[in-house]
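User: Please fill in residues for this 126-position structure.
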């Protein structure tokens, strides 16, 4: 990619001042368009991408420009409902250990219903 805007934390008003990873993806995919909600990126991946973008330091954030990240994010918004469920299931699985620790310390019992929902989402069934 040549002349690609600098990736920064938060959104930028113009490509000249740089913008978040999603703005750069939109700029790349749509010949200069400039929004942090590119229609070619799945909403779950977009939300995760924005969180990653804003938490990385400037020098590390530029790695997101690499094709293995930018081009792989493009084209993921296919409207596939099963993909959405699987992505949400995957993300829920990542935070489940925190929830499990909380429920143990709080004495809360969900009889496995939360884990059952996560597993169903991972299968694309929830």
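Assistant: Residues filled in for all 126 positions:
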């Amino acid at each position: 990619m040549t002349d690609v805007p600098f990736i920064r934390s938060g959104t930028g008003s113009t490509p000249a001042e740089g913008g978040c990873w999603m703005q750069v993806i939109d700029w790349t995919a749509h010949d200069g368009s400039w929004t942090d909600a590119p229609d070619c990126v799945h909403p779950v991946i977009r939300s995760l991408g924005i969180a990653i973008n804003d938490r990385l330091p400037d020098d590390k954030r530029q790695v997101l420009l690499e094709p293995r990240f930018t081009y792989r994010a493009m084209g993921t918004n296919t409207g596939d409902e099963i993909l959405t469920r699987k992505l949400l299931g995957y993300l829920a699985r990542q935070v489940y250990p925190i929830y499990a620790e909380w429920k143990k310390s709080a004495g809360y019992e969900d009889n496995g219903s939360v884990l059952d929902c996560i597993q169903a989402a991972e299968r694309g069934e929830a």
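For context: Helices lie at 21-29, 43-55, 58-61, 67-73, 81-106, 113-122.
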